[in-house]
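[Q] Does anyone have a clean structure-token version of this?
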Amino acid sequence: MNEKFDAIVVGAGPAGNSAAYTLAKAGMKVLQLERGETPGSKNVQGAILYSDALERIIPDFRDDAPLERH
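[A] Here you go.
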């Protein structure tokens, strides 16, 4: 494999996904690596997602996001 990338993001948790998305949106060719079976599977967090801020980064994220509401 001789592909070249502008950036390599390690991890597909919240920070890695945000970084990869932001870089790709800016036109960069991005490779994202995750050691888990699914994106974010190694992620453990009890954080709150602030929807107003997230909406500015990923408009209409609620339509596709697998969110659990309490």
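[Q] Thanks! Anything notable?
[A] Strands lie at 7-10, 30-33.
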